[in-house]
Amino acid sequence: MAGKTDTSGYETLRSRIKNKNLAGTYVFYGEEAYLRERTIEEMRQMAVPLSAESFNLNLFDSSVSPEDLAQAVNSLPMLCEYRVVIVRDVDLYKLQEGLQRSFISILEDIPEYCVLIFVYDALPYKTDARKKIHGVLKKHALTVEFALNDAARLVPWIKRHFKSEGLEIGTQDAQYLIFMVGRQMTGLLGEIGKLSAYSTGGVITKDDIDKVVVPGIEAETFSLVRYICRGEHGKAFELLGQLFEQHTDAAAILGAIGWQLRRIYTACLVRRGGGGIQKFMQVCPGMYSSSAKMTMQLASAVSVDWCRSALKACTETDLDSKTGGGGNEELFELLVLKLIQEKVAHAED
Asked: What is the pLDDT of residues 118-156, one digit of tens each?
């Protein structure tokens, strides 16, 4: 659902870590929290030995003052080469003008022994080229996006984790696990642990995944759309109710439904042009074969016109939810009903 990821910052960071050249300022952001935190820990351990952390490691949150940050950054390291300063959830672009000037002054004069890391964890990272700090960060900091990995990277990683538990999993089943859980490594690790504890054989199968894994929102909304496309309307409303019972964020549900519909629409266009799964995967980079196959199967049950109507209905529901057009659960029930009615109408044309 995200746009194209800029990997240049991450590649530069890995090169610096490999060469043990850590000094400088960093801005870390992105959805892949597990990889981000592992990287921070790797840099901490490389820069500051455990025995010297109390002298050379400073941790700050959003309440940090420029004075405290400046003191930490400019304090000489003791008993090791680097001083590490980690600041979480300070929105550098939204600081008041006076504070921003103070932070700029610090950023423009980072000592060669300091590793300063700004981490966007709970806050989204949004730049503003109009602000002076934007140019300062571009000149003095390395900005690194920790984006969700695609299946090509995750499948080998999943296999390694199961292997460490004395288990195996095939490529197709690893892809299915990603489909069910999502691409966040933290969530995958939790389900890998559950599957490893559950397994009584040496191989993890799709049946094991179906029995043990708690589906993520993308898998749930795929099932919801599939029920609608197959005419299983009772199951569609039941699943929608379960999502709200789980207190799933309404915006996340709608976003995931829209994402599924856009993929099905794309698959319909590919089918209409005479293409198959391979062509669909080319049009949707990062998609793996099992997911592409399921989406293409759904596309065979609907028309291009229905997809367009469904996407329009999602847009209208989004607008209604933002303008107070009813309770979220009621709006979503009406959305599902409209998608069902449109499906029936297009089937009769």
From this structure: 999 989 999 999 999 999 999 999 999 999 888 889 999
CA–centroid distance for 117 within its chain:
21
Distance, in Å, from the CA atom of 296 to the CA atom of 129, rounded to the nearest integer, reads 41
SS3 of residue 106 by DSSP: helix
Pairing of strands 203-204, 114-119: unpaired
- Here the tokens at position 240 are 């929608």
Please report the domains of the chain, with CATH numbers, ordered by start residue: 8-145 (3.40.50.300), 151-212 (1.10.8.60), 217-348 (1.20.272.10)
Give the pLDDT band (50/70/90) at residue 1.
Answer: very low
Distances (CA, A) of 167 to 188, 202, 208, 342: 16, 5, 13, 46
Tokens 């000037």 -> residue: 101
Structure tokens at 77: 């390291």
Query: What type of residue sits at position 172?
Result: Q
The residues facing 26 across adjacent strands are 117, 142
Ramachandran area for residue 205 (φ above 0: left; ψ -120 to 50: alpha; else beta)? beta
**Pairing between β-strand 141-145 and β-strand 168-169 as defined by DSSP bridges:** unpaired
Strand ranges inside 220-333, DSSP E: none
Could you give the CA distance from residue 12 to residue 90 in angstroms, rounded to a whole number? Answer: 23
pLDDT digits (tens, 9 = 90+) for 169-195: 999 999 999 999 988 999 999 999 999
> What SS3 state is found at 24?
strand
The structure's pTM equals 0.76
Instruction: Name the pLDDT band for 349 (thresholds 50, 70, 90).
Output: low
DSSP calls for 43-68? HHHHHS-GGGHHHHEEEE-TT--HHH
Which residues, in sequence order, are bridge partners of residue 84?
57, 115
Mean pLDDT, the chain, whole residue set: 90
Angle (CA) 70-72-76 rounded to 5° is 110
Strand 114-119 vs strand 57-60: parallel, antiparallel, or unpaired? unpaired
